[in-house]
Give the backbone structure.
Amino acid sequence: MILGIDASTYLEVLDHGGKYYVAGKAVEPLNLLRSNGVEYMRIRLWNNPYDEQGNSYLGGSCDINNFINLAKLAQSKGYKILLDFHYSDFWVDPAKQCLPKAWRGFSVEQLEQAVYDFTKSTLLTAQSNGIDIAMVQVGNEITNGMLWPAGLLRGGHGGVRENYPNFISFVKAGIAACREIYPFAKIVLHLERSYDQDVYNEFFGQMQLANVDYDIIGMSYYPYWHGTFDMFFANVNNCKKFGKQIMAVEFGYSYTPEGHVIQKDGQQIRVAIDNEMVDEYGVVEQYPITKQGQAQFIRDFLARAQAEGLDGVFYWEPLWLAGEGICWSTPTAQVYIGEEGKPTANEVANRCLFDYQGNALPSLEAFSLSNKQPK
Protein backbone atom coordinates (compact mmCIF):
# COMPACT_ATOMS: atom_id res chain seq x y z
CA MET A 1 0.00 0.00 0.00
CA ILE A 2 1.26 3.47 -0.93
CA LEU A 3 1.87 5.87 1.92
CA GLY A 4 1.70 9.55 0.94
CA ILE A 5 1.25 13.08 2.23
CA ASP A 6 -0.22 16.29 0.87
CA ALA A 7 2.29 18.95 1.91
CA SER A 8 1.21 21.70 -0.49
CA THR A 9 1.72 24.51 2.06
CA TYR A 10 5.19 23.43 3.22
CA LEU A 11 7.25 26.08 1.43
CA GLU A 12 4.92 28.88 2.54
CA VAL A 13 5.20 27.70 6.15
CA LEU A 14 9.00 27.82 5.88
CA ASP A 15 8.81 31.29 4.32
CA HIS A 16 6.91 32.47 7.43
CA GLY A 17 9.47 31.06 9.85
CA GLY A 18 7.92 27.67 10.57
CA LYS A 19 10.28 25.22 12.30
CA TYR A 20 9.95 21.56 13.26
CA TYR A 21 11.42 19.76 16.27
CA VAL A 22 11.86 16.29 17.73
CA ALA A 23 12.79 16.22 21.41
CA GLY A 24 13.80 19.87 21.18
CA LYS A 25 16.11 19.38 18.20
CA ALA A 26 15.36 21.07 14.86
CA VAL A 27 14.60 18.56 12.08
CA GLU A 28 13.68 18.42 8.40
CA PRO A 29 10.21 16.80 8.53
CA LEU A 30 10.26 15.51 4.97
CA ASN A 31 13.28 13.39 5.86
CA LEU A 32 11.49 12.00 8.92
CA LEU A 33 8.38 11.10 6.96
CA ARG A 34 10.45 9.53 4.21
CA SER A 35 12.21 7.37 6.80
CA ASN A 36 8.74 6.25 7.97
CA GLY A 37 8.10 4.82 4.51
CA VAL A 38 6.19 7.76 3.02
CA GLU A 39 6.92 7.66 -0.71
CA TYR A 40 4.47 10.07 -2.40
CA MET A 41 3.81 13.77 -2.11
CA ARG A 42 0.52 15.18 -3.37
CA ILE A 43 0.71 18.85 -4.39
CA ARG A 44 -2.34 20.94 -5.30
CA LEU A 45 -2.29 23.46 -8.14
CA TRP A 46 -4.41 26.58 -8.54
CA ASN A 47 -4.52 28.46 -11.83
CA ASN A 48 -3.88 32.02 -10.61
CA PRO A 49 -4.11 32.41 -6.82
CA TYR A 50 -3.47 36.16 -6.80
CA ASP A 51 -5.63 39.25 -6.56
CA GLU A 52 -5.66 42.08 -9.11
CA GLN A 53 -2.71 43.75 -7.36
CA GLY A 54 -0.66 40.56 -7.57
CA ASN A 55 -1.00 39.66 -3.89
CA SER A 56 -1.11 35.96 -3.05
CA TYR A 57 -4.32 34.42 -1.76
CA LEU A 58 -2.05 32.38 0.63
CA GLY A 59 -3.16 28.88 1.65
CA GLY A 60 0.15 27.73 0.20
CA SER A 61 0.25 30.10 -2.80
CA CYS A 62 -0.22 26.94 -4.84
CA ASP A 63 0.67 28.22 -8.31
CA ILE A 64 2.96 26.59 -10.87
CA ASN A 65 6.08 28.01 -9.19
CA ASN A 66 5.15 26.50 -5.83
CA PHE A 67 4.47 23.19 -7.55
CA ILE A 68 7.80 23.11 -9.39
CA ASN A 69 9.85 24.17 -6.36
CA LEU A 70 8.11 21.79 -3.96
CA ALA A 71 8.17 18.89 -6.43
CA LYS A 72 11.91 19.37 -6.98
CA LEU A 73 12.51 19.36 -3.22
CA ALA A 74 10.33 16.27 -2.78
CA GLN A 75 12.05 14.41 -5.61
CA SER A 76 15.46 15.21 -4.15
CA LYS A 77 14.36 13.35 -1.02
CA GLY A 78 13.02 10.33 -2.91
CA TYR A 79 9.32 11.17 -3.12
CA LYS A 80 7.13 10.47 -6.14
CA ILE A 81 4.66 13.17 -7.19
CA LEU A 82 0.86 13.33 -7.41
CA LEU A 83 -0.23 16.59 -9.07
CA ASP A 84 -3.69 17.72 -7.94
CA PHE A 85 -5.32 20.06 -10.48
CA HIS A 86 -8.12 22.15 -8.94
CA TYR A 87 -9.04 24.08 -12.13
CA SER A 88 -9.76 27.16 -10.05
CA ASP A 89 -7.80 30.08 -8.63
CA PHE A 90 -8.33 28.90 -5.04
CA TRP A 91 -9.87 26.17 -2.89
CA VAL A 92 -12.53 23.90 -4.40
CA ASP A 93 -14.67 21.28 -2.70
CA PRO A 94 -18.23 19.90 -3.05
CA ALA A 95 -19.68 23.26 -1.98
CA LYS A 96 -17.71 25.44 -4.42
CA GLN A 97 -15.97 24.97 -7.74
CA CYS A 98 -15.23 28.55 -8.80
CA LEU A 99 -14.18 29.29 -12.36
CA PRO A 100 -10.68 30.68 -12.79
CA LYS A 101 -10.97 34.44 -13.20
CA ALA A 102 -9.49 34.25 -16.71
CA TRP A 103 -12.16 31.74 -17.80
CA ARG A 104 -15.24 33.67 -16.76
CA GLY A 105 -17.75 34.07 -19.58
CA PHE A 106 -16.38 31.08 -21.53
CA SER A 107 -18.76 28.75 -23.34
CA VAL A 108 -18.72 25.02 -22.62
CA GLU A 109 -16.55 24.46 -25.69
CA GLN A 110 -14.14 27.22 -24.64
CA LEU A 111 -13.91 25.77 -21.12
CA GLU A 112 -13.15 22.32 -22.53
CA GLN A 113 -10.34 23.80 -24.61
CA ALA A 114 -9.09 25.84 -21.64
CA VAL A 115 -8.88 22.73 -19.45
CA TYR A 116 -6.89 20.93 -22.13
CA ASP A 117 -4.58 23.89 -22.79
CA PHE A 118 -3.94 24.65 -19.11
CA THR A 119 -3.32 21.01 -18.26
CA LYS A 120 -0.97 20.55 -21.19
CA SER A 121 1.02 23.75 -20.60
CA THR A 122 1.37 22.93 -16.90
CA LEU A 123 2.61 19.43 -17.61
CA LEU A 124 5.04 20.65 -20.27
CA THR A 125 6.45 23.12 -17.73
CA ALA A 126 6.79 20.32 -15.18
CA GLN A 127 8.45 18.08 -17.74
CA SER A 128 10.93 20.76 -18.78
CA ASN A 129 11.87 21.16 -15.11
CA GLY A 130 12.59 17.47 -14.68
CA ILE A 131 9.49 16.61 -12.64
CA ASP A 132 8.57 12.95 -13.03
CA ILE A 133 4.85 12.97 -12.26
CA ALA A 134 3.54 9.55 -11.24
CA MET A 135 -0.15 10.46 -10.75
CA VAL A 136 -2.39 13.29 -11.91
CA GLN A 137 -5.65 14.21 -10.23
CA VAL A 138 -8.10 15.79 -12.69
CA GLY A 139 -10.18 17.99 -10.40
CA ASN A 140 -10.44 18.05 -6.61
CA GLU A 141 -13.43 16.65 -4.70
CA ILE A 142 -15.53 16.72 -7.85
CA THR A 143 -18.51 14.90 -6.29
CA ASN A 144 -20.81 17.65 -7.61
CA GLY A 145 -18.85 18.44 -10.76
CA MET A 146 -16.38 21.24 -11.45
CA LEU A 147 -16.10 24.57 -13.29
CA TRP A 148 -19.47 25.77 -12.06
CA PRO A 149 -22.02 26.54 -13.33
CA ALA A 150 -21.16 24.92 -16.67
CA GLY A 151 -19.92 21.69 -15.08
CA LEU A 152 -22.27 21.52 -12.08
CA LEU A 153 -23.97 18.16 -11.46
CA ARG A 154 -27.44 19.07 -10.27
CA GLY A 155 -30.77 17.53 -9.34
CA GLY A 156 -31.01 13.78 -9.24
CA HIS A 157 -33.14 13.17 -6.12
CA GLY A 158 -32.48 9.44 -6.18
CA GLY A 159 -31.73 9.21 -9.89
CA VAL A 160 -28.85 10.26 -12.11
CA ARG A 161 -28.04 13.94 -11.79
CA GLU A 162 -28.21 16.30 -14.74
CA ASN A 163 -25.32 17.80 -16.72
CA TYR A 164 -22.93 14.86 -16.87
CA PRO A 165 -22.12 15.50 -20.58
CA ASN A 166 -20.65 18.95 -19.86
CA PHE A 167 -18.79 17.76 -16.81
CA ILE A 168 -17.42 14.68 -18.56
CA SER A 169 -16.20 16.80 -21.48
CA PHE A 170 -14.06 18.81 -19.03
CA VAL A 171 -12.70 15.69 -17.33
CA LYS A 172 -11.87 14.05 -20.65
CA ALA A 173 -10.07 17.20 -21.83
CA GLY A 174 -7.84 17.16 -18.78
CA ILE A 175 -7.17 13.44 -19.13
CA ALA A 176 -6.33 13.79 -22.83
CA ALA A 177 -3.62 16.34 -22.03
CA CYS A 178 -2.24 14.11 -19.27
CA ARG A 179 -2.06 11.06 -21.52
CA GLU A 180 -0.32 13.14 -24.18
CA ILE A 181 2.45 14.57 -21.97
CA TYR A 182 2.79 11.96 -19.18
CA PRO A 183 1.41 8.79 -20.78
CA PHE A 184 2.49 6.55 -17.90
CA ALA A 185 1.07 8.70 -15.11
CA LYS A 186 -2.02 7.27 -13.42
CA ILE A 187 -5.19 9.38 -13.56
CA VAL A 188 -7.13 9.96 -10.32
CA LEU A 189 -10.79 11.00 -10.08
CA HIS A 190 -11.40 12.28 -6.56
CA LEU A 191 -14.68 12.53 -4.63
CA GLU A 192 -15.54 13.16 -0.98
CA ARG A 193 -18.75 11.87 0.72
CA SER A 194 -16.90 8.58 1.02
CA TYR A 195 -19.62 6.95 3.13
CA ASP A 196 -22.22 7.31 0.34
CA GLN A 197 -22.33 4.23 -1.87
CA ASP A 198 -25.21 5.61 -3.95
CA VAL A 199 -23.20 8.68 -4.98
CA TYR A 200 -20.16 6.59 -5.92
CA ASN A 201 -22.27 4.09 -7.84
CA GLU A 202 -23.91 6.91 -9.79
CA PHE A 203 -20.72 8.87 -10.46
CA PHE A 204 -18.42 6.04 -11.44
CA GLY A 205 -21.24 4.30 -13.27
CA GLN A 206 -21.50 7.39 -15.46
CA MET A 207 -17.73 7.39 -15.95
CA GLN A 208 -18.00 3.80 -17.09
CA LEU A 209 -20.84 4.54 -19.52
CA ALA A 210 -18.88 7.44 -21.02
CA ASN A 211 -15.66 5.39 -21.31
CA VAL A 212 -13.70 7.88 -19.21
CA ASP A 213 -10.06 6.79 -19.20
CA TYR A 214 -8.90 6.85 -15.58
CA ASP A 215 -6.98 4.55 -13.23
CA ILE A 216 -7.71 5.42 -9.59
CA ILE A 217 -10.82 6.17 -7.53
CA GLY A 218 -9.69 8.78 -5.01
CA MET A 219 -11.62 9.39 -1.78
CA SER A 220 -11.47 11.92 1.04
CA TYR A 221 -11.96 10.45 4.50
CA TYR A 222 -12.47 12.72 7.49
CA PRO A 223 -14.61 10.92 10.08
CA TYR A 224 -16.32 14.11 11.26
CA TRP A 225 -17.85 14.42 7.77
CA HIS A 226 -17.65 10.88 6.39
CA GLY A 227 -18.53 8.58 9.25
CA THR A 228 -16.95 5.54 10.85
CA PHE A 229 -14.33 3.14 9.54
CA ASP A 230 -17.10 0.63 8.80
CA MET A 231 -19.00 3.14 6.66
CA PHE A 232 -15.89 4.17 4.73
CA PHE A 233 -14.57 0.67 4.06
CA ALA A 234 -18.02 -0.62 3.06
CA ASN A 235 -17.86 1.89 0.22
CA VAL A 236 -14.25 0.97 -0.59
CA ASN A 237 -15.37 -2.62 -1.07
CA ASN A 238 -18.45 -1.46 -3.00
CA CYS A 239 -16.21 0.42 -5.46
CA LYS A 240 -13.97 -2.55 -6.22
CA LYS A 241 -16.50 -3.61 -8.86
CA PHE A 242 -15.30 -0.74 -11.09
CA GLY A 243 -11.95 -2.47 -11.53
CA LYS A 244 -9.80 0.52 -10.53
CA GLN A 245 -7.27 1.14 -7.83
CA ILE A 246 -8.80 2.85 -4.77
CA MET A 247 -6.98 5.34 -2.56
CA ALA A 248 -7.75 7.72 0.27
CA VAL A 249 -6.03 10.71 -1.31
CA GLU A 250 -6.95 12.79 1.76
CA PHE A 251 -7.44 11.75 5.36
CA GLY A 252 -6.66 13.25 8.74
CA TYR A 253 -7.64 13.65 12.38
CA SER A 254 -7.21 16.35 15.02
CA TYR A 255 -5.02 16.20 18.12
CA THR A 256 -6.57 19.05 20.12
CA PRO A 257 -9.92 20.89 20.21
CA GLU A 258 -8.18 24.05 21.38
CA GLY A 259 -7.31 26.83 18.97
CA HIS A 260 -3.96 28.57 18.74
CA VAL A 261 -3.18 32.16 19.60
CA ILE A 262 -1.85 34.74 17.17
CA GLN A 263 0.92 36.41 19.14
CA LYS A 264 0.67 39.83 17.50
CA ASP A 265 -2.79 40.64 18.82
CA GLY A 266 -3.58 37.75 21.14
CA GLN A 267 -6.41 36.59 18.87
CA GLN A 268 -7.64 33.09 19.66
CA ILE A 269 -8.16 31.10 16.45
CA ARG A 270 -11.03 28.64 16.69
CA VAL A 271 -10.15 25.38 14.97
CA ALA A 272 -12.43 24.07 12.27
CA ILE A 273 -12.62 20.58 13.75
CA ASP A 274 -13.34 20.05 17.45
CA ASN A 275 -15.15 17.58 19.73
CA GLU A 276 -18.55 18.86 18.67
CA MET A 277 -17.86 18.19 14.99
CA VAL A 278 -16.67 14.62 15.51
CA ASP A 279 -19.47 13.67 17.89
CA GLU A 280 -22.06 13.21 15.12
CA TYR A 281 -20.76 9.73 14.30
CA GLY A 282 -19.47 8.87 17.78
CA VAL A 283 -15.90 8.58 16.53
CA VAL A 284 -14.55 10.73 19.35
CA GLU A 285 -15.62 8.08 21.89
CA GLN A 286 -13.06 5.69 20.43
CA TYR A 287 -10.55 8.31 19.30
CA PRO A 288 -10.60 11.33 21.62
CA ILE A 289 -9.24 14.55 20.15
CA THR A 290 -5.97 14.30 21.99
CA LYS A 291 -2.39 13.63 20.96
CA GLN A 292 -2.72 9.93 21.72
CA GLY A 293 -6.19 9.77 20.19
CA GLN A 294 -4.88 11.16 16.91
CA ALA A 295 -2.00 8.67 16.92
CA GLN A 296 -4.29 5.72 17.60
CA PHE A 297 -6.69 6.84 14.88
CA ILE A 298 -3.86 6.92 12.34
CA ARG A 299 -2.44 3.59 13.49
CA ASP A 300 -5.82 1.87 13.31
CA PHE A 301 -6.78 3.44 9.98
CA LEU A 302 -3.56 2.31 8.32
CA ALA A 303 -3.98 -1.22 9.68
CA ARG A 304 -7.59 -1.41 8.45
CA ALA A 305 -6.63 0.07 5.07
CA GLN A 306 -4.01 -2.62 4.57
CA ALA A 307 -6.40 -5.35 5.66
CA GLU A 308 -9.16 -4.11 3.30
CA GLY A 309 -6.83 -3.85 0.30
CA LEU A 310 -6.75 -0.07 -0.11
CA ASP A 311 -4.07 0.84 -2.66
CA GLY A 312 -2.86 4.03 -0.98
CA VAL A 313 -3.47 6.64 1.71
CA PHE A 314 -2.36 10.29 1.83
CA TYR A 315 -2.34 12.29 5.06
CA TRP A 316 -3.55 15.81 4.32
CA GLU A 317 -1.26 18.70 5.33
CA PRO A 318 0.73 17.09 8.17
CA LEU A 319 3.16 20.05 8.13
CA TRP A 320 0.77 23.04 8.01
CA LEU A 321 1.72 24.71 11.28
CA ALA A 322 0.04 27.55 13.10
CA GLY A 323 1.90 30.85 13.07
CA GLU A 324 2.05 34.53 12.26
CA GLY A 325 1.16 35.05 8.58
CA ILE A 326 0.37 31.35 8.00
CA CYS A 327 -3.17 31.63 6.67
CA TRP A 328 -5.69 29.52 4.82
CA SER A 329 -6.90 32.61 2.95
CA THR A 330 -6.78 36.38 2.59
CA PRO A 331 -9.93 38.56 2.76
CA THR A 332 -9.70 39.10 -1.01
CA ALA A 333 -9.52 35.36 -1.61
CA GLN A 334 -12.61 34.87 0.53
CA VAL A 335 -14.48 37.24 -1.76
CA TYR A 336 -13.41 35.15 -4.76
CA ILE A 337 -14.85 31.95 -3.25
CA GLY A 338 -17.87 33.66 -1.65
CA GLU A 339 -16.86 33.04 1.98
CA GLU A 340 -16.33 36.57 3.25
CA GLY A 341 -15.90 37.49 6.88
CA LYS A 342 -14.18 34.39 8.24
CA PRO A 343 -10.93 34.43 10.24
CA THR A 344 -8.00 34.02 7.86
CA ALA A 345 -5.48 32.25 10.13
CA ASN A 346 -4.84 28.53 9.71
CA GLU A 347 -7.87 26.88 11.31
CA VAL A 348 -6.83 23.31 10.52
CA ALA A 349 -3.40 23.38 12.20
CA ASN A 350 -4.77 20.96 14.81
CA ARG A 351 -4.66 18.22 12.16
CA CYS A 352 -0.87 18.46 11.84
CA LEU A 353 1.56 15.77 12.91
CA PHE A 354 3.34 18.57 14.80
CA ASP A 355 1.87 20.79 17.52
CA TYR A 356 1.36 24.55 17.34
CA GLN A 357 4.99 25.10 18.38
CA GLY A 358 6.32 22.67 15.77
CA ASN A 359 7.05 19.78 18.14
CA ALA A 360 6.55 16.28 16.74
CA LEU A 361 3.42 14.53 17.99
CA PRO A 362 3.06 10.78 18.69
CA SER A 363 1.13 10.59 15.41
CA LEU A 364 4.33 11.25 13.44
CA GLU A 365 5.68 7.89 14.52
CA ALA A 366 2.26 6.27 14.07
CA PHE A 367 2.13 7.36 10.42
CA SER A 368 4.11 4.36 9.23
CA LEU A 369 3.19 1.01 7.76
CA SER A 370 5.21 -0.68 10.49
CA ASN A 371 2.24 0.07 12.78
CA LYS A 372 4.42 0.52 15.84
CA GLN A 373 2.65 0.51 19.17
CA PRO A 374 3.31 3.44 21.49
CA LYS A 375 6.18 2.93 23.92
Observations:
- The first strand starts at residue 2 and ends at 6.
